[in-house]
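Blinded run. Sample ID left blank on purpose so nobody reads anything into the name before looking at the predicted structure. Input follows.
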Amino acid sequence: MCILVSALSSCSAPKAEGPVPDRLQRSVVALAQTPSEVTEAEFIATRSCLLRAGFDIPYGSDFAHNPTSSIAGVPGLFASASAARVSGYGTTIRESDDPISAFGKHLDSADSTRFAIALHGASDARQVSVTLMRGGTVSRSAEGCAAEGTTAVYGSVETALRLENFANEIYAQLEPSAIARVLKRDLPSYRSCMATSGYVLGPEETNASKQARERFGVYRDPGDPPKPAEAVMAETDAKCQHESGMTSDTNSLFFRTAGHWVIAHEGQIIAWRDDLSTAQKQAKNIIDNG
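Blinded prediction complete.
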């Protein structure tokens, strides 16, 4: 998940009182995005339930790759060179609904109502709510095929809600002005690296996403691999980000500024990382047998 730095101007966090242990850092990084296999398995289980209800959803292909970002959620930063090569740029992907939503849009009124009930339960369906670390609650239906698919992967709707909202918990701790300073400091080195490889960025560009769209167009559907030339550009981009320190510096900044919050919630974070590992194992079983 990504969120614009400028949208975080009201967020702040206390300074860390000490270094965040490596294991805890790895847990936070792992929880920052939902793994693609978890998303795919949830779809498979939900689709199977809907099929029993009389709705045959075409199998989607938009689960293959995750969005790319640093833990700080800065747009345009890749998690790694290998991930960049596989996923390419989001700016070359056509916007589209997920397969289940797309299917529902083409139903007539009667079938649409029946589909909505099959997916989320009736209007009086039982709801599951969780309280977030920063306050506030999020809720979701505990009935219907969506809940069944979620439970098949995560073990419960409650666990899914906590894990899926963890990235927003992270973003609430960020100091956007500090992140902007780090990126500004690293930008000249990044630009130089990209130019050396033949990718000259415009004066207002802080990443190569716009240039990728201009070079290759918007030509692929979610899940489709990038063209070889785009894959090379994205891989080069990620390497330049790494060499310039953009990704590591923003991640380090997060743990320096939000370390106090991370350490204060260590028990929950480690437990949720274990929950995610369990969900990933279950997802693999669903995909292998689906």
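Unblinding after everyone has recorded impressions. The two ends are 27 Å apart (CA to CA).
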